[in-house]
Amino acid sequence: MNVTRTITETVIDVVDDQSWFLRRKESIALVASNLTWMAALGTIVTDTLPRWAQLILMVLGGVGTVAGVVATALTKAAITPSMGPRLEAAAAPEPVFSTLHPFEE
CA 29, CA 35: separation in Å to the nearest integer? Predict the structure, then answer.
């Protein structure tokens, strides 16, 4: 049995079974918080919104960032296709059994 082939097959199966959201949740949280921060910064620099609206955008940016960090930290991470080769490299090699018994007389 080839251990590294079994790991690769397992990674492929797990990746295929994951939902789209699980594989992309970190990216979604990062994009959402960055867009909120960019909107807040844009309104502050251009002074296009009243101060209370700017403050709301700043608070939403902070809440979105914290929510993204918490969601990433407290949920199971996705398995990505790039993990296959990394797991293969980290896997212990197959044991080598010898027919020689040095302790037998």
Answer: 10
